[in-house]
Recover the amino acids of this structure.
C-alpha cells in the first residue's frame, strides 16, 4: 500500500520527507506537493502521518492510503 500526502506548500517537501521516513522501509518520494511512501499496514497510517507532519510543522491538504492494486489499475 502507498501513503500519499498532498502538501499545502511545495517548500515543505523536504521537511515532510524527513518526518515520514520512519514509516517505511523504502525511500520516501516527493514530486512538488505530493509525497508518497510505502506502508505495510493501512490501520493507523493516516493518523500517524498526520501526527508526524504536525510535529514537523508541515501542513497537508490530504492524506490517503492507496492499495497497491489500485495503483496498477487492477480491479479489486
Amino acid at each position: 500500500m502507498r501513503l500519499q500526502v498532498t502538501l499545502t506548500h511545495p517548500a515543505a517537501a523536504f521537511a515532510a520527507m524527513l518526518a515520514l521516513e520512519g514509516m517505511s522501509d523504502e525511500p520516501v518520494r516527493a514530486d512538488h506537493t505530493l509525497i508518497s511512501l510505502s506502508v505495510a499496514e493501512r490501520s493507523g497510517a493516516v493518523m500517524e502521518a498526520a501526527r508526524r507532519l504536525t510535529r514537523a510543522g508541515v501542513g497537508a491538504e490530504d492524506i490517503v492510503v492507496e492499495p497497491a492494486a489500485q495503483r496498477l489499475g487492477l480491479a479489486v
Q: What stands out?
A: Residues 45-56 form the longest helix (12 residues). The chain has a mean pLDDT of 90. DSSP finds three helices and four strands in the chain.
